[in-house]
Write a structure and sequence with these properties.
With about 325 residues, this protein is α+β, with helices and mostly antiparallel strands. It has two domains: about 190 residues, Ribosomal Protein S5, domain 2, CATH 3.30.230.10; about 130 residues, Alpha-Beta Plaits (2-Layer Sandwich). Helix content is about 40%, strand content about 25%. It contains eleven helices and twelve strands. Strands 1, 2, 3, 4, 5, 6, 7 and 12 form an eight-stranded mixed sheet that branches. The longest helix has 23 residues. The protein is globular, with a radius of gyration of 19 Å.
Length: about 325
């Protein structure tokens, strides 16, 4: 029996999220600044036996692939199914496992897609570069599995590190020259990541927001344009080493996020935000699409913030930035 293991990191987004989502990204151009963190999604393929089985350890779901059964998407391991249809493997078991909760807002489905593509292409003897892996993973999730979203998660998972990604109709520009000297360590020491315990279905929120944008709603369009400008400004603040400005931009991004949809800030998120600001923050925002998931807090009072968040029902997610993108190993 042979085994191939691919792992890919999730990410935190500092600014510009939402602007990587079509049709806005194609029509207006978007920019996202995000950082890969050391929570990785793993896909393991054990080749051998007589059956083909797909399993998600974190969802506790399994399906057995039968060539006589028509291909359908029924909400059970849809991303796994479309990935295997695109890049089949022989008899064996494909397992996935993540180290962050589903619906955390950290881009775990994008990391899963990247790890799926990397593991399946490896067992086919194909060598793809990070950009090709990211693009294939995005296509599988958005077009094949029909989960609406943008490209930032797949690119962060494929490349690792901190980047400014610029999205447009002609493709994606990858800029890794983001941090000034010493800023990465200072930022890592000042950021607190808090999971609300409330998973959200980001596709529902994304469909509402982009539906309003597509019809020309001025409030939605204005909020997306502000998010794009915040993305550009965040990259400049990191290059300048200005953490106070980083915090102010987190707040600006959060205000623009909330302008996109009435459900962006849940009651629990509002309570956690109120408590955090009472303790003292430089800035904060929802991670990913919002409407639940996780909150990112930039503070000079880390210990006090962590204590307050736990007391109010938040779950701390320890994190370390990682430069390692998708990786593949054979056993």
């Amino acid at each position: 029996m042979k085994r191939v293991v691919a792992t890919a990191p999730v990410r935190i987004d500092l600014a510009g999220g939402w602007t990587d989502v079509p049709p806005f990204a194609d029509r207006e151009g978007g920019v996202v600044v995000n950082i890969a963190i050391d929570h990785r999604t793993a896909v393991t393929i054990d080749l051998g036996g007589t059956d083909r089985v797909l399993r998600s350890e974190d969802l506790d779901q399994s399906i057995r692939l039968d060539e006589a059964t028509p291909f359908v998407l029924d909400g059970t391991l849809d991303l796994h199914r479309v990935a295997v249809r695109a890049r089949p493997f022989g008899a064996g078991t494909l397992r996935s496992a993540a180290t962050v909760p589903p619906g955390s807002g950290l881009g775990s489905s994008g990391a899963l897609g990247v790890a799926l593509v990397a593991s399946l292409q490896a067992q086919q003897g194909v060598a793809l570069d990070p950009r090709e892996i990211a693009e294939e993973a995005y296509r599988l999730e958005s077009a094949e599995a029909r989960h609406p979203g943008g490209r930032q998660d797949q690119y962060a998972a494929a490349f690792g590190g901190c980047h400014r990604f610029v999205f447009g109709e002609d493709g994606v520009t990858v800029d890794s020259k983001v941090f000034a000297s010493g800023v990465e360590e200072a930022l890592g020491d000042a950021l607190v990541l808090v999971y609300t315990g409330q998973s959200r279905v980001s596709g529902d929120t994304i469909a509402r927001v982009m539906g309003r944008y597509a019809t020309g709603d001025p409030g939605t369009t204005g909020a997306l344009l502000r998010l794009r400008e915040t993305g550009y400004a965040m990259a400049e603040a990191l290059m300048d080493g200005d953490l106070a400005q980083v915090g102010a931009l987190l707040d600006q991004n959060w205000a623009a996020q909330q302008a996109l949809d009435a459900g962006m800030r849940t009651p629990l998120m509002a309570r956690l935000e109120h408590v955090a600001r009472d303790v003292g923050v430089l800035g904060m925002k929802a991670v990913g699409a919002g409407a639940g998931g996780s909150i990112l807090v930039l503070t000079e009072n880390r210990q006090a913030i962590e204590t307050a968040m736990v007391r109010e029902g938040g779950q701390l997610i320890p994190m370390v930035f990682t430069t390692k993108g998708v990786c593949v190993e054979w056993d």
